[in-house]
Amino acid sequence: MGxxxxxxxxxxVLKEEKEALESLLNSLDDNFDKAVETILxxxxxxxxxxxxxxxxxxxxxxxxxxxxxxxxxxxxxxEAIHGDLGMISKEDLVLAISNSGETPELLAIIxxxxxxxxxxxxxxxxxxxxxxxxxxxxxxxxxxREACPLNxxxxxxxxxxxxxxxxxxxxxxxxxxxxxxxxxxxxPGGSLGKKLMRVQEIMHKGEELxxxxxxxxxxxxxxxxxxxxxxxxxxxxxxxxxxxxxxxxDLRRFLKKGGSIDRGLTKEGMTENPKYINKDTLVVxxxxxxxxxxxxxxxxxxNQKPIGIVHLHDILKSGVI
Length: 321
Known about the structure:
Elements: H1 6-27, H2 30-40, E1 46-50, H3 52-67, E2 72-75, H4 77-81, E3 93-97, H5 104-115, E4 120-124, H6 130-134, E5 137-140, H7 156-176, H8 180-186, H9 190-195, E6 211-212, H10 218-228, E7 232-236, E8 242-247, H11 248-256, H12 266-269, E9 271-272, H13 283-293, E10 297-302, E11 305-311, H14 312-318
Parallel strand pairs: 1-2, 1-3, 3-4, 4-5, 6-7
Antiparallel strand pairs: 7-8, 8-9, 10-11
């Protein structure tokens, strides 16, 4: 081992990779625009291909594209040589990744792909390479050297390629007008899907709603609160519009001030202008509101009328946190 501490080596590597990203940023040109436009106009899928570390990065790029609205799959070039080229349809576009631009396995399949009439976008670190020249659009990585002290192991170049793939995916996402709802469709399971869950998926509604009126005697309101089990009740006017909410905490504060449950009316203990949400609010946003205002229940309101109720327990059971 040398005199350098591992943390010093780590910082140097991160610094060099940061510089590689800055170099890529400064060299990004109209070819990026052309690549995005070509992919947007592609009726088929984006077939990502690459060998070794480029292939591993390519798999991630393909997965990111597919999850953000651009249909894509990864094709191993060595397998493509031996029959998997049949996976490419005439409407597909090929995104070929090679740091050197001279990867034999890639160069072996590009002529066939070109002969079929498929567009090829290449990502290389050598604009004079065979792959760059054979492609329809070339994006230059512009990485001077690897973070590896031997300048051999793919480090800075693979990081730059990964970041470039993210840039393509996000540019395509924004150009397509890809929404949170679209994202949720592609991530129905796991934490991503749950974080995009809407309030309407977990809210209680109909006869479960605890509804009372301003002039409802407090003792009756307490019975409604106990029966529905949310520790609160929505106060509505004659038209059914919400005008307040009354909770266990409101009752305690009312009694502390000398109020009487037996003789009091709901309007005397309720909180006016309560916080509420709509049915399309994200569950995580509802949780943020609860945490901000230190409350455990939220009315779900549409056209000023309560249509649902969400309790903190519902959010915990949903699995979004």
